[in-house]
Amino acid sequence: MQDNRPSDLARTSFAAADASGSGPTPTAGTTDGRALRRSLRLLAVALIGAAIAASADAQTASTAAASVPGETPELRVAALVIPPFVMEQNGSLSGFSIELWDAIAARLKLKTRYQILPDAITLEEAMRSKRADLTVVPVVITSARDAVFDFSFPIMQAGLRIMLRATGERARTAGPLWELLGLLFSRTTLVWLGIALLLVLIPAHLVWLLERRHDGIISHRSYFPGIFEAIYWALSTLATQAETMPRQWVARTLAIFWMFAGVVFVAFYTAQLTTTLTVERIRGAIEGPGDLPGKRVATLTGSTAADYLRDHYAQVQGFSTPDQMFTALLEKKAAAVLFSEPALLYYATHEGKGRVTMVGSPFNSAPIAFMMQLDSPLRRPIDLALLALRENGTYQQLYDKWFGGP
Length: 406
Description:
By secondary structure, the chain is an alpha/beta fold. Among the domains are: 8-67, no CATH class; 176-281, Helix Hairpins (Orthogonal Bundle). Strand 8 (296-300), helix 10 (304-311) and strand 9 form a beta-alpha-beta unit. The two termini are 61 Å apart. It is elongated. Helices cover 53% and strands 17% of the residues.
């Protein structure tokens, strides 16, 4: 044990200081010398006290470390329930990520305390506040995340994929009558009807004003019912061709112009109607990411899939868990689901078999890995353990078990 008593040199310094400080007649010089010696004495005492305290702290730390010799460190590992990576049943955890991490922890002789969190946002907050040491559910490596966290070697590449209900988005449940009514009362049709109404009322009033005074095609001089005769003439001219021509020359000029305007109007309306019918027929068909803008798409809140949907002007429906996301699709509250392909494929071949279907190819492929605190001393050992598990075949066995082969 370290001797914390003052050294002989210190005692000698104090004695010399006391001896030199005594004198029969204090003068200005001796007074200054005495003050200096007193300051030196206090400084020496302070340095010795600091040395004693440091020695005590070191001994305490050594004692604490020695009191638990060989104890395995316990890590706080955050996770989300996302099959097949993390699955929870009857209080026990399983899944590809769980078994892969258990194999890594066994090689590194680490203890694990799992923390199941409700959503991705809560998981990232737990990491930022250092309430968790690492995440066992694979996280997509992005530049923003890499700036504040460390990542292990990627455990796989995963892209985004689109899932639909098994009946297909193009299946039409409404009958022909409902389709026709929907078309007639669509926004496009109502806009064109409003334009037609203006194009009928304006020339109808002009013809009524001109023809009612010259024994023309308007037989009634009063506004009612004379205006109705003028509206009928304007409407028939717009839709087909005028049955009778006005007698007043200004009205005839207007009629000729109106017949030309009617041909142009009908042509434009026919083209618009054809376009609307085509869009109505294919509306809802989702074949790939280019069809997602404007659609209601379900995904997990805080995921990279949610960021993609917002960037591409889709109607994002965020959920905390995959079960909520899939339920929204099956209950027709969402037109599609966009999420990591491995998770969607697992659901499509298990709980969702026969009820959902995958469309298109995976896109926005990115590496996914275990996320840990920045500058974590665990990163290098975890990377080495991952390489060893790949080399001895353990990784491939787990991959085949949960994903059915590469």
